[in-house]
Specification:
The chain has about 475 residues and is α/β, with parallel strands linked by helices. The protein contains 18 helices and twelve strands. Among the domains are: about 120 residues, no CATH class; about 190 residues, 3-Layer(aba) Sandwich (Rossmann fold), CATH 3.40.50.300. A hairpin with a 2-residue loop joins strand 2 and strand 3. Necessary for flagellar biosynthesis. May be involved in translocation of the flagellum.
């Protein structure tokens, strides 16, 4: 393949050299402006019979003989007008007839069309790329001419006007990253500006985050913060959280009884909590009014522990080994004022949780979710979600005496609108069981945090609140 460079004072001069060398069938590969004029890369055109078959040989002309009409046009018209008229004439020509399938033409290596970059329109052999050339004349080309050795996508498989899919995806990815970066920077500036103009807002944000509250709930609360001094703002925050933390009153289990199944992960204190509730109810209504059932047949120590508590309280403990036996025991104890079912402990990611919950008859047994106050915020969230916590469901807070921060627990209770039944803060039965008080829990949750390696500084705190558009998971909490 013979590719040659032609340099002229202008485009017309360079095109004249191309035509003088290879005639009207020359193929223009590229053109660009240089310091010495205009440079055109061209190659000789292929014979028409090599592309379209023997039946079209009569229509082809020798490439060495320029058409007289084209010569006249070059001498009398401007170059731009010349190429425009030729392009119009070419579009009016009749399209070549399809090649008969019975007479395939042998492939010739020298007749292989030159593959051009996808950026330029495909060039049909035997024609000048007039429209593309006219477009390129007004630009100062910054890219180098294509080389024959560089394989490019074929014009037949990929239109030149469409960018490659991989390139388009890369550009979109860059644009998305740029948009995210700009939004983050603007949100960060907004945070620092807000911190400068509202020191109270910053201090309360530090208080919430330092005590383990989620950034989502903190933003949700503080965007409703009224104007005022520091004491008034902190008092407002405590009142709002207290009002949204729901605790039972006279309708507690210890007062009214019922049928409850204690559910929760392994080790949260279900068995001990069962004994505490049974002991408190027995002291008020008598041991004969309480029934105890265990379905924890996996751990012998758990059932043995509950039987030991039952012996102390004078309450027999029955074991249900399957759903059918559980239904029989429910019918056996239907005259009891309080029936407690101690279930097997399953981690919040255990796939058998669904089977356990399905085994509890809906409408006859109410679930009592036991939450470990020492658990991480993310762990508490998984427990509530996987054990099917819903607004208004009763729950028990265990191991409150061991918790360093109560903020994650209070945050969960507020967002999911759970009803706190009681608080277990120790191993003693029944002494370490108490009725819940929302204000006391909030005061404990909003205690001034002690400085530690987990306390965020100013810059780290700003990063937590740059995503102002993130919606708060769970229920709406701001009823200020």
């Amino acid at each position: 393949m013979n590719v040659k460079r032609f340099i002229g004072r202008n485009a017309r001069d360079a095109m004249a050299k191309v035509r003088a060398a290879w005639g009207d069938d020359a193929v223009v590969l590229s053109n660009r402006a240089t310091h010495s004029g205009v440079e055109i890369m061209a190659m000789p055109g292929m014979p028409r019979h090599s592309q379209f078959g023997p039946e079209l040989e009569a229509d082809s002309q020798p490439p060495s003989q320029p058409a007289p009409q084209a010569s006249d046009a070059m001498s009398t018209l401007s170059f731009e007008r010349f190429v425009r008229e030729r392009q119009q004439r070419w579009t009016k020509e009749e399209a070549p007839a399809p090649v008969p399938a019975a007479a395939p033409v042998a492939r010739q290596p020298q007749a292989r069309p030159f593959e051009v970059p996808a950026r330029r329109a495909p060039v049909e052999p035997g024609r000048f790329a007039a429209a593309e050339l006219q477009k390129e004349m007004g630009l100062v080309a910054t890219d180098t001419a294509p080389t024959v050795s560089d394989p490019m996508p074929s014009a037949a498989t990929m239109p030149a006007s469409d960018p490659p899919p991989a390139l388009g995806e890369a550009v979109m990815s860059e644009l998305r990253a740029l948009r995210t970066m700009i939004n983050t920077e603007l949100s960060g500036l907004s945070w620092f500006d807000s911190a400068r103009r509202s020191p109270l807002h910053t201090r309360l944000m530090r208080l919430l985050i330092g005590n383990g509250f989620s950034p989502a709930l903190a933003r949700h609360l503080l965007k409703r913060l009224p104007d005022g001094d520091e004491a008034r703002g902190e008092r407002w925050l405590r009142e709002v959280i207290t009002r949204n933390l729901h605790c039972v009153g006279k309708d507690s289990i210890v007062e009214r009884g019922g049928v409850f199944a204690l559910v929760g992960p392994t080790g949260v204190g279900k068995t001990t909590t069962t004994a505490k509730i049974a002991a408190g109810f027995a002291l008020r209504h008598g041991a004969e009014s309480v029934g105890l059932v265990t379905v924890d047949t996996y751990r012998m120590a758990a059932s043995a522990q509950l039987r030991a508590f039952g012996n102390i309280l004078g309450i027999p403990v029955h074991t249900a080994r399957d759903a059918s036996s559980l239904l029989d025991l429910l019918k056996l104890h239907e005259r009891k004022k309080l029936l407690l079912v101690d279930t097997v402990g399953l981690g919040q990611r255990d796939g058998r949780i669904g089977e356990l919950l399905d085994a509890l008859p809906t409408g006859r047994v109410e679930r009592l979710l036991v939450l470990n106050a020492c658990a991480q915020a993310e762990t508490l969230e998984e427990v509530a979600r996987n054990y099917g916590a819903r607004p208004g469901q009763r729950c028990v807070v265990s191991k409150l005496d061991e918790a360093v921060k109560v903020g994650p627990l209070v945050d969960l209770l507020v967002r999911h609108r759970l009803l706190v039944e009681g608080i277990a803060a120790g191993q003693r039965v029944p002494e370490d069981w108490s009725a819940p008080h929302a204000r006391w829990l909030v005061e404990k949750a909003l205690a001034e945090p002690r400085p530690s390696v987990f306390t965020p500084d100013e810059s780290q705190l700003a990063l937590l609140f740059t995503g102002a558009g993130v919606a708060m998971p769970g229920a709406q909490a701001g009823h200020a």
